[in-house]
Amino acid sequence: AKLLLKQNGFKEKTLAVVYNSLNFEVFQTLYQGLLSTSKNEFITFFKNNNLPTIIFVGRLTKIKKLNLLIDSLRKLNQVKTRYNLLVIGSGEDQMYLENINNYLIDQGWLHFYGECYDNNKTSKLIYHSDLCVSPGNVGLTAIHSLSFGTPVASHNNFNNQMPEVEAIIDGENGFLFKENNSNDLANKIDNWFFQNPKIDKNLIRKVVIEKYNPENQMLIFNKHFS
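Below the sequence we write its predicted structure tokens.
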């Protein structure tokens, strides 16, 4: 974000990045409570619940490009089902998306959960998912997912992104793919799971612990305004 402003004529000395945050302390408590739980307690929507679970969290609108993600997984699951997709959210495109992908729902690897604003429920589903993908733009969904140690993927065109995309460290706590390219997304999903058969949730959460929290925000504000 700072680089984009510099490229558009802003003076660097006048710029400071204040990292966005969610309810950090609540999420910390929820995270600790999930450490001793198992995936099979909460991921129960699929024919094979033991497959890697990819999750989408957000409004079901055209700008989120959910069908790009569904198309990528359809290609990967064409011969044999290898991934499940859990969709959390509602919106103007929900009925359309469910109707055109009903045959994938019947195959047992795609599930539309609907809207959910209960942190206790969403934290369990995010924590026990293996990858969060936001195929359109990614905003606070990135911070939400990373807070629970779940890697995040989104597209690499920063001109069409939200500021929180910077929390994704490509290859470390998630990855970036070519915008609007379902083949690239499919390849990078496969590559991510091949290279990361087991993840360290503490490493995935590191950027939130260090930067994307209210305490760090206050340090930055105090530094520049005191």
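The mean pLDDT is 95.
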